[in-house]
Write a structure and sequence with these properties.
protease; eight-stranded mixed β-sheet; 15 helices; hydrolase; Aminopeptidase; 19 strands; Peptidase_M17_C; single chain; aminopeptidase; 464 residues
Length: 464
C-alpha cells in the first residue's frame, strides 16, 4: 500500500460503523447504559469487561452492527485500537465517543502488509477511520508512511536491498523533494573514506561500498545531519558469524532505513533546517580481499584503528560518515544504527539505547519519546570505559576484548569522531519485531522514529 490517505478521513457525518472502546473501569457503567439486546449479546459471549474482550454487537437493522473492544491502554497510546484496524472487515468506522487522537497512527500501521514476494490471501480492503480532528491527519499519515518505508526496506532480502538499492532510495527522495544527491564510491571512497571502503571492499561486483549524501533546505537554517548505518548484509567478515547469527543480517541496514525515512518526514513537513543525510552503504562480505583482524585502518579524521573484530564493522563506517558530517559544522548530528547485540541483551528488542554528549539533548529525546509513546532508554558515555579502546599499535581498537559494556564502548568509539561542541545523539536499535503485537507485525520496524521527529519539531519549528 503506497497511498495511505484513504485510511483516515475527516468526519462529516458520513455513514460508518461504530466502535465502542471501553476501559475495564468503565465497564459496569457502560453495560448498564446499553439496551437489552446488547446486554443479551454480551452475556452470550460471556464477556466480563476484562481487557481484550471484544464482540460484534447487533444494531437496529438486520445489516447493522458495531464493534466492542475492552481496552486498558491509555487513551494517548497509538496502539489503543490497532487490533481493530488490523482485524475488522473493509469499511468505514468511527468511535462511539471521543476522538481517536494519537490512535489514528496505530489504526493505519495495523494495515501494513509486506507482500512483495507472495500473494496475501488474507488481505482486506481499506479500513477507514473517521476523525473530527482533520488537522492531525497529514502528519499522522506522513509518520505512518515513514514507518512503512522502514519496514519495507528492512524486510527486503539482501538480494534486493544492496548498497545500490539504498542509493536508489536516496535518489528517489531527492527527486521528490528537490534535494541534491552526491555519491562517493571507487577510488574516491578509498582515498576519502578509507574505513567505509575497507569494510565493503570484499563485496561482489555491483554491490560496491559507497557514501550517499543528500542535502536539502535553506542554507541559512540550522544544519541537521542524519547519519545511517547501511550494512546491507553482515556475514561478520573473516570473523564470520554462525548461521543463526547471520539469519537476520538483512536488517543490519536498519539504521539507514531510519535515517532515510526520517529525512522524508523532515522534508515533507518542511522543517526549517538545512538537512544533510549521510548513509554509509556496504556489504560486509568474505573474500580474498576482505579486511582482516589485526589490520590497522586509516580514517577520514586521520586517526588509526586496529581492527580487532571484523564483525564490529558498523562503528567503522559510521566513524567516517560522522567525520564528514562534522566537516559541515552542523547544529545537531543524529546517527541510527543496528550496532550491538549487547544493547539487546541489556534492553531487549523494544527499547533503543540512546547515547548523547549533551544532557539537554538527551532530556529532550527522552521527553519526546514519552510523549510520542515511542520510548528510548539512555545509557552513559562512561569516560571510565574509554581506556578499553586502547591499542598497542594504533590510536584505538574498534572492539575491546571481553564481554563488558559493549553498547557503551561502541558509542565511545563513535564519540572519538564528534567534537564536544557539536550536539550529537546515537541510537543503537534492533529495528526488528521478533513477535507480532497489534499494529506492529513481526519483522522490520521503526523504533525511535516518532520520538526523534517529535524532538526535532520541538527544537526547530520555531526557528523559521
Amino acid at each position: 500500500m503506497t497511498d495511505l490517505s484513504p485510511l483516515l478521513q475527516p468526519d462529516r457525518g458520513q455513514p460508518a460503523r461504530t466502535l465502542h472502546v471501553v476501559r475495564p473501569d468503565q465497564w459496569a457503567d457502560w453495560l448498564k447504559a446499553q439496551p437489552a439486546r446488547i446486554r443479551t449479546t454480551i452475556a452470550a459471549h460471556k464477556l466480563t469487561g476484562k481487557a481484550g474482550n471484544r464482540a460484534v454487537l447487533p444494531g437496529d437493522k438486520d445489516d447493522d452492527w458495531s464493534m466492542l473492544l475492552v481496552c486498558d491502554e491509555a487513551e494517548g497510546s497509538p496502539f489503543r485500537i490497532a487490533s481493530l484496524g488490523e482485524q475488522l472487515p473493509a469499511g468505514t468506522y468511527r468511535l462511539a465517543t471521543g476522538e481517536p487522537g494519537g490512535a489514528m497512527l496505530g489504526w493505519v500501521l495495523a494495515q501494513y502488509r509486506f507482500d512483495r514476494y507472495r500473494k496475501d490471501d488474507t488481505a482486506q480492503g481499506p479500513r477507514v477511520l473517521l476523525t473530527g480532528e482533520p488537522g492531525r491527519i497529514e502528519e499522522t499519515l506522513r509518520l505512518a508512511t515513514a514507518t512503512f518505508k522502514v519496514r519495507d526496506l528492512i524486510n527486503m532480502p539482501a538480494s534486493d536491498m544492496g548498497p545500490a538499492d539504498l542509493e536508489a532510495e536516496a535518489a528517489s527522495l531527492a527527486r521528490v523533494h528537490g534535494a541534491s544527491l552526491n555519491v562517493t564510491r571507487g577510488d574516491a571512497l578509498e582515498q576519502g573514506y578509507p574505513m567505509i571502503h575497507a569494510v565493503g571492499m570484499a563485496a561482489a561486483r555491483g554491490r560496491e561500498p559507497r557514501l550517499i549524501e543528500l542535502e536539502w533546505g535553506d542554507p541559512t537554517h540550522p544544519r541537521l545531519a542524519l547519519v545511517g548505518k547501511g550494512v546491507c548484509f553482515d556475514t561478520g567478515g573473516l570473523d564470520i558469524k554462525p548461521s543463526a547469527g547471520m539469519r537476520l543480517m538483512k536488517k543490519d541496514m536498519g539504521g539507514a532505513a531510519h535515517a532515510l525515512a526520517l529525512a522524508g518526514v523532515v522534508m515533507g513537513q518542511r522543517l526549517p533546517v538545512r538537512l544533510h543525510l549521510l548513509v554509509a552503504a556496504v556489504e560486509n562480505s568474505v573474500a580474498g580481499n576482505a579486511f582482516r583482524p589485526g589490520d590497522v585502518l586509516r580514517t577520514r579524521k586521520g586517526l588509526t584503528v586496529e581492527n580487532t573484530n571484523t564483525d564490529a564493522e558498523g562503528r567503522l563506517i559510521l566513524g567516517d560518515a560522522l567525520t564528514r558530517a562534522v566537516e559541515a559544522k552542523p547544529d545537531l548530528i543524529l546517527d541510527f544504527a543496528t550496532l550491538t547485540g549487547a544493547a539487546r541483551v541489556a534492553l531487549g528488542p523494544d527499547l533503543p539505547a540512546l547515547f548523547a554528549n549533551n544532557d539537554a539533548l538527551a532530556g529532550a529525546m527522552l521527553d519526546a519519546g514519552d510523549a510520542a509513546k515511542d520510548p528510548l532508554w539512555r545509557l552513559p558515555l562512561w569516560d571510565g570505559y574509554d581506556e578499553m579502546l586502547k591499542s598497542d599499535i594504533a590510536d584505538m581498537v574498534n572492539a575491546p576484548d571481553g564481554p563488558f559494556a559493549g553498547p557503551i564502548t561502541a558509542a565511545l568509539f563513535l564519540r572519538r569522531f564528534v567534537p564536544r561542541d557539536i550536539a550529537w545523539a546515537h541510537l543503537d536499535l534492533f529495528a526488528w519485531r521478533p513477535a507480532a503485537k497489534p499494529g506492529r507485525p513481526k519483522g522490520g520496524d521503526a523504533m525511535g522514529l516518532r520520538a526523534t521527529w517529535a524532538m526535532l519539531k520541538g527544537r526547530y519549528s520555531d526557528t523559521a
